[in-house]
Amino acid sequence: MISKEKIQELLCDLESDCVERTISTTNTDKFGEAICSFSNDLPDHQRPGYLIIGADDKTGKIVPVDITDSLLKNIAAIRTEGNIQPQPSMSVEKVDLEHGSVVVVEVHPAHFPPVKYKGKICVRIGPRRGVANEDDERKLYEKRASHVQTFDALPCLDCSLSDLDVDMFKQLYLPKAYPKDVLDTDRRDVRLQLQSLGFYDMKYETPTYAGILMFGNNVERHLPGAYVQYVRFDGVSRASEIASDYKFSGNLMTILNRLDIFVSTTVAKNRPIRVTALREEYVVDYPSWAIRELLMNAVCHRDYEANGPIQFYQYEDRLEIMNPGGLYGKATPKNFPWVNDYRNGVIAEAMKVMGFVNRFSRGICRVQDELQANDNGEADFNLELGTAFLVTVKVSKKSFASIGEAKDEAKGEKKSGRHKLSENAISVYQLISKEPTLTREEMASRLNSSASKVYRAIVELKQNGIIGRLGGRKVGAWVVLREIDGQ
What we know:
The protein is 35% helix and 20% strand. By secondary structure, the chain is of the alpha+beta class. The chain folds into 4 domains: 4-131, Schlafen, AAA domain (Methyltransferase, Cobalt-precorrin-4 Transmethylase, Domain 2, 2-Layer Sandwich); 148-218, no CATH class; 228-399, Heat Shock Protein 90; 404-480, Winged helix-like DNA-binding domain superfamily/Winged helix DNA-binding domain (Arc Repressor Mutant, subunit A, Orthogonal Bundle). The strands form 7 sheets. It has a 6-stranded mixed beta sheet, covered by helices on one side. Strands 1-2-5-4 form a 4-stranded mixed beta sheet. It has a two-stranded antiparallel sheet with strand order 3-6. Helix 10 (252-267) runs antiparallel to helix 11. The longest helix has 16 residues, at 252-267. It starts with a helix and ends in a 7-residue tail after the last strand. Mean pLDDT is 86; it is low at 403-418.
């Protein structure tokens, strides 16, 4: 962070393309535009810019403002709230000076300009802040090309503009990427419009891989693994019979919309279960928002250089989503999910524009909350596969009731005078609780009993709504629907 002496110099000097001063503590648009301008670093100073809150913009004198933890958190949140794309590199600090305190926001130049705030490319020339013109955009794009590292921003050299669905780009994407007043005065060729958003490379006169992925007419011709394979297994393992399968293919504008609809109508199945003889309760196997978010993450973060698809597998007791490419960049098993990094920066930005990603750095935490609220338990992330990323989500415990006998209400059980379980049933229940994949023969051997006694115990447990069965005898598993503590 900058020293106090340097801050004092900036306060005494005139405002420039590296410094902006303000006494406002609530004008987030002004803060966002300033941060965006410093990130773009149009003059190419290659040094940080500074937003100083609590100082007069004309005289540089410190003006007392209420600097609270809430103010510092709100300014820091500008980085991840999604209005600035790509995310800026910045730090926020309260600095105590001789004549009072100020908030200093240090913003480093972006490696992948142009950076946009709410769709506008903000730049700073001297003390003036405004919107970039065509020449400004060209300079910023050239800076981006010189720093490009991610695969999706590279040119797809065997393609041309005809490989893109330009109408889809103009009609569906552009109106969401730029404000209406900007589009009304935009007379640029479509190639320049595509380039300004990272979808075209004017130097090579070809779309980038991000352009092909988002708007390509034949994506798999250039990226064979760029699709999502859904399989529904009629059991609990890949050895089970396949009940149905579907290939989500095409460009991402098409795939993402289809996945969105598919999850809400097919995967997040809303089903009734009988609670009492006169009342039913509706439950969902999986909360649609949580599964949708996990799929969107798989599409956003996968390795598109790999030839394998995203595997979206549904079993009777769980969902598995596996995408090519493990954790990327700064993200490691130790800091996941608190530290994020982007393998496909342009794709991530495009998905934010289209509303498939709502806000960065919060998705996984909200997924876990949604799953727990629906009685699915937390999602399990396997981060040790190296070249792949696997997440497993168990089906909601509530929906297991539809497999066996309907559950009775706890009070109803007491009033009905239901008999206590036999010792034989309790022994079988205890085995199933620990090892749900045991067969009847294995249970009989463990209990030193006969298969017929085990069978009668299972019938008793089922009739009392305590256990259910998923899958067949060979690849199935027992499910505990109700605890029997206190028997």
